[in-house]
Amino acid sequence: MTPTITAFERSPDRGRGQARDMRVRWALEEVGQAYDVRPVSFSAMKQPAHRALQPFGQIPTYEEGDLALFDSGAIVFHIAERNAGLLPDDANARARAITWMFAAVSTLEPPIVDRETAILLERDEAWHKQRLPMVEDRIRGRLGELSDRLGDADWLDGGFSAGDLLMVMVLRRLNRSALLDEYPNLSAYVARGEARPAFKRAFDAQLAVFATASDGG
Ligand code: GTB
After folding, report:
1. pTM confidence score
2. pLDDT-based confidence at 211, cuts 50/70/90?
3. Which of 40, 130, 133, 184 suits 93 as a labelling partner, its CA being 20 to 30 A distant?
4. Where would I find the H helices in 32-183?
5. pLDDT recorded at residue 126
6. In testing the pocket of ligand 1, which one of 58, 59, 115 has its CB within 8 Å of the most ligand atoms?
7. pLDDT tens digits, one per residue of 37-89
């Protein structure tokens, strides 16, 4: 059964692949699973019909037959569990790859999101200029630790896995800052992820939605 995911009708990131449907698209492309996309507007996202799928009124969602899922990490996990290619067969290696999935969204992503919140929503606060460097130092702490662990390896634990997919997506959120450049092995790691054919297909697909919406089409 072809799954259907939801994505922004018109992404505020202008197609830079920062919205979280990109993670799901990339996972689907990695495992060779075709999918349909239902674009949703900001107002439709807050309607009961969408909240029945995503209680917080957000994208992405995932529907497959009578299964409906939300939260990009859980969706990527589901795709990785049901298809070959994103999790190793060996039970211990699989558990470690899943550990990296959680580390991406629960250890690395929160300080990165905090920085975005500071820049987008706290810019006019009197304390913004004092707070931002502290937030960025917390990110540096995590990046330094991740950089030490990655070393000169291509991926976090053996071959490419769903753990790398989520970690690359989380680190990409720093693309427009200079923070990632301070860790050349992490910049190279992100570039390696972005060079994967499945990433490129997913990126082009989400960009096409933005371009179509911008054309008024
Ligand atoms: N934990 C959930 C998940 O991982 O699926 C979080 C989902 C989420 O944050 N969705 C966002 C959303 O629907 C879009 S991805 N927001 C609308 C709302 O809450 O009303 C976050 C996002 C949005 C925009 C950019 N950007 O413009 O660069 C980047 C990331």
Report:
1. 0.97
2. confident
3. 184
4. 42-45, 48-51, 72-82, 91-103, 109-121, 128-150, 162-172
5. 93
6. 58
7. 999 999 999 999 999 999 999 999 999 999 999 999 999 999 999 999 999 99
- Mean of pLDDT over the chain: 96
Residue 171 near residue 105 (C-beta atoms within 8 A): no
Q: Who's near 120: CB < 8 A, 6+ residues apart?
A: none
**How many angstroms does the Cα of residue 90 sit away from the middle of ligand 1?**
33
Q: Which residues line ligand 1 (CB under 6 A)?
A: 12-13, 18-20, 45, 57-60, 71-73
- Name which residue sits closest to atom 3 of ligand 1, judged by CA: 71
Torsion of CA 88, 201, 61, 98, to 10 degrees: 20
Q: Is the pLDDT of residue 217 over 60?
A: no
